[in-house]
Amino acid sequence: MVPETSTPAASGTPPPAIALDLVTRRFDGTRQVTALDQVSLDIPRGEMVSIIGPSGSGKSTLLNLIGGLDRPTSGRVRVDGEALDGLSDDGLTRVRRDKIGFIFQFFNLLPTLSSVENVGLPLHLRGWPRARVAARAHELLALVQLGHRLQHLPDELSGGERQRVAIARALSIYPPILLADEPTGNLDTRTGGEILALIQALHARLGSTVVIVTHDLKVAASCGRTIALRDGRIVEDVRR
Amino acid sequence: MILLRLISWPYFRRHVLRSILTIAGIVLGVAVFVGMHTANQSVLYAFSRTVDRIAGKTELQVTAGETGFAEEVLERVQSASTVRVAVPVVEAVADTRQRGIGSLLVLGVDMTGDRSLRDYDLESGDEAIVDDPLTFIAQPDSIIVSRALADRLDLGAGSGLPLLTAEGEKRFTIRGVMKASGLASAFGGNLAIMDVYAAQKMFGRGRTFDRIDLALKSGRTIAEAQAELGALLGPGFQIDPPAGRGQQFEAILAAYSMMVDISSLFALFIGMFIIYNSFSIAVTERRAEIGILRALGATRRQIRWLFLGESAVTGLAGSLLGLGFGLLVARLIAASIGVLISDVYGVARQADEIATNPALLAAALAIGLATSVAAALIPARSAARVDPVQALQKGRHQVLSAGESRARIGVAAACGALSLACLAAPRMAPAWVGGSRAIFYLGYLLAILVALLLSPLLSLMLARALRPLLKRLRPVEGALAADSLIQAPRRTSASVAALMLSLALVVAFGGMARASYDSIIDWLETALNPDLFVMPSQNIVVRTIRFPPGMGPEIAAIDGVERVQMVRDARIVFRQTPVMVVAVEIDSLEQTARRDPVEGDAASMYRLTAAGEGLMVSDNLAQLQGLKIGELLEIPAPYGVIRLPIVGIVVDYSDQQGTILMDRQVFRKYWQDDSVNVFRVYVRRGASAAGVRQRIVERFAGERQVFVMTNAELKAYILRVTDQWFGLTSVQIAVAVLVAILGIVNTLTVSIIDRRRELGVLKAVGALRGQIRRTIWIEALSIGGIGLALGFALGAVNLHYLLQMIRYDIAGMRLDYTFPVNVALGLVPAILAAALVAAIWPAESAVRRSLVEALEYE
Questions:
Q1: DSSP class of B7
Q2: Do A93 and B767 make contact, defined as CB atoms within 8 angstroms?
Q3: Which residues of B touch A35 (CB under 8 A)?
Q4: Are residues B204 and B235 in the same domain?
C-alpha cells in the first residue's frame, strides 16, 4: 500500500534532500555558454520547490544536474546526502533509479508500451518479479485515477492522461525526490490545473521532496518555496 | 549538381560511417562479381595463352578429342593440297619430383619440321646439337627447357633433369634453354620440349600422336583446308584453329562458370538491398530537410534527381572500389581455382597472372552503377512524394500501411500462383520463349520475387511472434527490442531481405553439396569398388601418360590378384560437347558391378555392350542431352563412326559432362589404340590389399612408373576434390556473414537514432548501461533470427530449383532433395555471432549518447 508519511520534523540533523555547492555548468561550443554559475542551494526533505526564470536562465540545467542526467563543470551536487561527482554512469543511474522520479513536459512515455507497462518499466529495470511489478503498476495507476486505462497505449490517451501515467511512472518506487520539468507546459489550463493538484496531493500524501521547473507563475505560487534564476545565478529564493 | 554539393555532401560528411556502409554494399556485389569472373577468366586465359604460345604459327590443328590417333594420319594430312607443313605433337604433363616446381608440360615435337611452325628462340645450349635436329633426335635423352624452369631448378645447358615417365624416373639432358618469351612462357614457363618419338615412348603412347599442327599453303583459306581435311580424314577428327581448344576448355568449365554466375548474381542482388536499405533510411532521416527544400521551392523532380544523383555517385565510388577489391579477390582465389580445375577436369593449366579483361571491368562498373541507381529508385520516389507539411511528423512513414500490405500480398500471391504454374506445367512453353527451360527460370525468378515482396510482412509477423518470447526473457529489453522492429518494418526489412537472399544461397549450395556428396559416395561404394587402382600418375585425372596393355596379364599373375580390369578413358567431342569415353572389359565389369542401371535390364545391358552391340551411357549424359534407351548413337572416331544403340543408362560420375561406356574391343577397333589409363585390381579373398600393392610396385620397379592407390585412397581423393568444388560454399558463407554485419550495423545505427529519446528515457528512469546494450543486442539478434528463418525458408525453395538446374542444365545429376540441416545448424551461431558483432558499435554509441540531448530531442 501507499506509505503515509508526514513532513519530516525540523528536529535532528538529517542531510538535506538536495544540496548544491558552488555548482557551475558550462557548455563548450563555438562560443562557451555558462548555464549555471556557482550556484549553492539546499532543499530540505519534504519541501515542494518551484524554480522559475526566463528561457536560458539555467532552470532545466539545474534540474538535470540534480537528477544526475548531467554533470557539473565544477562544484558538488549531493542527493539524499550522496555526492554525485565521482559516480560512474551506472552509479548515477542507480541514484536516479533509487531516489528520483522524473516528470517531463513531453511525458516521454514509450509509445509501444501500454500504460501499465510504462509504469512498470523502472521496476522491471530494478529486477522486480513480474507479479510485484504488475501489482505496483495497478496500484499507481489507480492512485492517479487511471485504473480504467491500464492497457491503453500512449497514443490512445489524452494529454492529461499521458501526464498522469508519467507521474505514476515517476512514483513507481515512491522515490524520496520528484523532479518535474514543466509538467503542465504541454497541457491546456484546466488539465494543467488538475495535474498540479495531483502533484500537490501526492506530495502531501507521500511527503516526497518535489522540485518543479516552470514558466507558469500560478504553478510556482502553489509551492512552499520559489527560487528564481537569471543568467545562471539565483536571484531570488522565497519561502511562503 | 548544386543540390548534391549543398545538400548531399554535408549529409555524407555528417554520416561518414553510414555512407561507407552504403558504399560497402556495392563494393561487396561488384567485388564478388569481378573477383569470381576474373579468377575464372584468368584460368581460361592462361589455358588459351598456353595454347596460343605453343601453337606458334600453326593455323589449324587436327585432333581426335584427347584420344590421339595413329601415326599414319600424319601422312594423310601432309598429302593434302592445302597443307604447306604438318607436324605431329605429343603433349604430356609430367612430374619433376622437384619441390615447388609442380607439373611440367612436356611437348613432344618433330624437330626436323617443327621449327617452321614454332620459334624456340634459344639463348644457350649446344648449338651444334640444337641446330642439327638429327643429332638432337639421335640422343633420346635430349630436352629443351624454358629459361624460367632452368632458373627455378637452378640448371643450365648440359645439366640433367629427372622426369617421371611411364617407364619410371628418367634422366634427361638439357640441350638448350629457351629465352623467357613467346613459347617459353607458355604454361607459366613450366615447359620442356623433347622429340616426339621419344615422348611416345616415355609417356606410353605407342605409335600415336595427340595432334597434328599445320600451316597452309599461301593463298589457301582455313575453310578450304578444313573442307579438304574433313573429307580426307572422316568425321572422327576435329580440324580447328588453335583457338578452338580454348572453346572446348570453356565448354568443360561450363558447370563451374554457371555456379560462378549464380553466386555473382546473388551478390549483386544483395548489394542492391543494402543500397536500398541505406537510401530508404536516408529518406526517412532527411524528411525534415526534404520538407524544407520543398517549402523553399524544390520540385519533386529535383528531389528525385537529388537522391538518384547521390545513388549514382555512391554506385560509382562503390564500383571503383569493388573493381580493386575484386581484382584482389581474384588474385587470392585464382590459384586455388586453377588447382581445382586441374583436379576436377584433368586439364592442368595454371593461372600465373590475373587476366584483367577491360570489357568485364567496364561491365562490372556499369552493373554496379545501374544496381545502385535501381536500388535507389523507390526511395527517390518516396523522397519526391514527401509532403512538406507532414515532413515533420516523425515515424508515420515507417509503418507499413494496410493498403500497402494488401497490395504486396496481392502481387506476391499472383507471382506465387504463376511460379507454381511454371513448376506444374513446364512443358507448355512455346518454343519462341525458349521452351520449358525459360518457363522453369521464370518460375525461379518469380519464387524469389515472392520472397522479396513478402519479406517485410513476414519480418513484421515474426517480430510480433517473437515479442512475447523476448518479453518473457527480458521484460524491458526484450519487449523494447521487438517493438523497435515492429514499429519500423522498413528499417529492418531490407536488411532481413539481404540476409535472407544470402542465406538462401548458402543453404541451397550447401544442400546441393551434401546431395552431390552423398550420391558420389553411393556411386563409389557400389560401382567403383576395386581394391586397388594402378595408375601412371599420382593425379587420377591426368590421362597423358599411359600403360601398354601387356601389363594387364603381368599384374594378373601377381600373387593375391583375383581380377584385373583394363580401363581406357578419354575425352572426345560428341555432339559438339566434350564427353568422356570409358572403355572397359564389360564382361568383367558385370561380375563386379553391384548397382542396377537407372534404365534398362542389367543382364541384357552387359551382354549387348560386351558383345559390341550396344553402348551404356551415364545418367548425367542422358539428362543433359535428352538421350533415351534404345536411341541410336553416332560417335565419330578416327577409324569410323560408331553406330550403336543405348542399351543401358547407369550412374557414373567420371565426368561432369557425361560418360559413354563401351567395351574395350569397340574402342580398340575405332581408335586403333589399346593403351590403358588405369588397371582396376580386385584382390583375392584372404589376401591383403597392402601386400598386393607392395608386390605390384616391386614387380614394376625400375621398369615402369606405377602409382597404386587403394580404394579408400581413391575415395578420399575424389571426396577431397568434391570438397574443393564446393569450397565455393565457404566463400558464400563469408559473404553471408558480411551481409549480416553490414545490414545489421546499418539498421541498428538508424534504430538508435530513431530511438534516441526512448533510450534516453530508459536511462533516465533507471536503465543501466548493460541494460541499454542488451536491448540493442537483442534487436540485432532478432534481426539475425528473422533473417535466418526467412533465409532457411527461401533456401529450401532455392535448393529445389538448384537441384533442377543441376539435373537439366549443369551436370545431369539426379540428386535427392534433402534440406542441409548441418549447414543450417552451422549458420545459426555464425549469423547470430555476426549480428552481435554488428551490434557492438551501435550499442556503445547508444550507451554513450548524451542523456540531456536525448531527452530534449524532438
A1: I
A2: yes
A3: none
A4: yes
Which of A69, A90, A121 comes nearest B768 by C-beta?
Answer: A90
Task: Please tell me the distance from the alpha carbon of residue B15 to that of residue B19, in angstroms, as a whole number.
Answer: 6
CB distance A117–B479 less than 8 Å?
yes
Q: What is the pLDDT of residues B222-232, one digit of tens each?
A: 999 999 999 99
Nearest to A69 among B758, B764, B768 (CB): B764
pLDDT, tens digit, for every residue of B64-87? 888 889 899 999 999 999 999 999
The answer to whether residues B559 and B698 belong to one domain is yes
Cell of residue A2, nine digits: 501507499
Helix ranges, B474-561 (H)? 477-487, 489-526, 551-556
Q: A134: pLDDT confidence band, cut at 50, 70 and 90?
A: very high
CA B141, B142, B148, B151: dihedral to nearest 10 degrees? 70
Q: What's the gap in Å between the CA of A2 and the closest CA on chain B?
A: 20
CB contact under 8 A, A93 and B766: yes
> Domain span at residue A51?
18-239
Residue B278 lies in a domain: yes
With contacts defined as CB-CB under 8 Å, which chain A residues touch B755? none
Question: What is the C-alpha separation between B519 and A81, in angstroms, rounded?
Answer: 77
For residue A236, the distance in angstroms to the closest alpha carbon of chain B comes to 26
Q: Which of B341, B358, B393 is the last residue of a domain?
A: B393
CA separation, residue B221 to residues B84, B228, B233 (Å):
12, 11, 18
Comparing CA positions, the residue from B46, B536, B99 lying closest to residue B339 is B46
Answer with the one of B338, B370, B393 that is the final residue of a domain: B393
pLDDT of residue B430 exceeding 60, the answer is no
My answer on whether B232 and B262 are in the same domain is no
Q: Which residue of A has its CA nearest to B487?
A: A112
Closest-CA residue of B relative to A112 is B483
Cβ contact B730:B499 at 8 Å: no
Do B144 and B175 meet the contact criterion of CB atoms below 8 Å apart? yes
B603 in contact with A at a CB cutoff of 8 Å? no
pLDDT above 90 as % of chain B: 30
Name the residue range of residue B3's domain: 1-52+242-393
Say whether both B254 and B341 belong to one domain: yes
Contact B626, B633 (CB under 8 A): no
- Contact in structure between B56 and B181 (CB atoms under 8 Å): no
Provide mean pLDDT across the span B475-487. Answer: 89
Residues with Cβ within 8 Å of B418's Cβ and at least 6 positions away in sequence, in order, are: B442, B443, B446
What is the four-CA torsion angle of B366, B368, B370, B371, rounded to 10 degrees? 160
Beta-carbon contacts of B806 under 8 Å, excluding residues fewer than 6 positions away, are: B512, B516, B812, B813, B815
For residue B163, what are the CA distances in angstroms to B103, B145, B192, B487? 10, 12, 11, 72
* B768 touching chain A per CB within 8 A: yes
Helices (H), B703-727: 711-725
Query: What is the number of CB-based contacts under 8 A between chain A and chain B?
Result: 72
- Contact A96/B764, CB-based, under 8 Å? yes
User: Is the CB of B475 inside 8 Å of chain A's CB atoms?
Assistant: yes
From chain A, the residues in CB contact with B767 under 8 A are: 93, 125
